[in-house]
Amino acid sequence: MKRRTFLRLMGIPMLIMVLMLGVYGSAYAQNAQKPTIAILATGGTIAGAGESEVSSAYKSGAVTVDKLLVAVPQVKDLALIKGEQVAQIGSQDMNNDIWLKVAKRLNELANDPSIDGFVITHGTDTMEETAFFLNLIAKTDKPIVMTGAMRPSTALGADGPRNLYDAVLTASSPLSKGKGVMVVMDDKIYSADDITKTMTTAVETFQCPNFGPLGYVLNGKPWFTREVKVKNTLTSEFSIDKNTVALPEVVIIYGYANENPMLVEAAVKAGVKGIVYAGMGNGNPSTAVEKALAEAVKKGVFVVRTSRVFSGPTIEYGEVDDVKNGFVASWFRNPQKSKVLLTLALMRTNDVAKIQQMFKEY
Ligand code: GLU
């Protein structure tokens, strides 16, 4: 074959090869620039499947993380995704065992230098407790963002795909580093310490009633408007390790007019380590329940007074003498978050004054 004909024949495949290398090369370069986000899926409505597109009846946690991601292919433009199914429950079934499993896996992956941030998908019912639990024991300043949905993935106007996209976007941003655990829902970024579910059905259910949202997701970027003031993650003294298999038993007792001290007495008899009392107003118990709670303290049970009121602190030096009774006032932690904090506090100390201080710092 003549030299010129050979070159002409070889030129075309070579050109194709060079073009392909260019395409692959630039795709590789783009991927190399993208952060890697680990998605830990636990279930919830975001993974819920319903019989119809408009009914509110559905099964929580039926859809796996891989299927969730198929519904939001755009996340691949934001990050390289590593999905893991840690649990598959409705979050009303969240318990200490699953908390420990999620926390251990999170801390394990946090040590992996190839992971830049985390998204945890979760049911909205107990999202606020899991967020606060992880906020206290995750040992990393890498972004940790929780998200969920109020409408199942099969519903018309499902909010899960957008929330998942915004969560990956927030977890991918260097601006989100060192902010503790956040929850991203409905275009807003909330801090784990104050977030609470406020409405049973609305997509805008979450609020931080005391301090407002930490920021917003705007034009494809997290936009932070306030700083987190309380200790969390790397500044938190709380921790678990692979040998932690159980947490102290703490219960919540709700206050009400004409309340009966029998619930406090039953809890003490059952051998609980702590009682969070969600009292009236500034965490006030009735005279009879105050007496029962003081008796509980004498028997070695730790009592935190908090409030059934939606917002505001429960503080010492109100109508209840906390020092005399040996109670702790919860400050800005609501009953369910007080339960989380008291549980972890009891793994570190039995000193009521120290526990009181923790409620001001976390
Ligand atoms: N029970 C469900 C859960 O928490 C419903 C709440 C939700 O995810 O919206 O998993």
- H/E series, N to C? HEEEHHEHEHEHEEEEEEEHEHEHEHH
Tell me the number of structural domains: 2
Strand count, sense and barrel status of the largest sheet are: 8 strands, mixed
Strand tally is 16
Helix/strand layout:
Elements: H1 3-33, E1 36-43, E2 49-50, E3 58-59, H2 65-70, H3 75-78, E4 80-89, H4 96-110, E5 117-121, H5 127-137, E6 144-147, H6 160-172, E7 181-185, E8 188-191, E9 196-197, E10 206-207, E11 215-218, E12 221-224, E13 250-254, H7 262-270, E14 274-279, H8 287-298, E15 302-307, H9 322-325, E16 327-329, H10 335-345, H11 352-361
Parallel strand pairs: 1-4, 1-5, 5-6, 6-7, 13-14, 14-15, 15-16
Antiparallel strand pairs: 2-3, 7-8, 8-11, 9-10, 11-12
Helix pairs in contact: 5-10, 7-8
Describe this protein with a few key phrases.
single chain, 362 residues, alpha/beta, Rossmann fold, 8-stranded mixed sheet, 4-stranded parallel sheet, 16 strands, 20% strand, binds glutamic acid
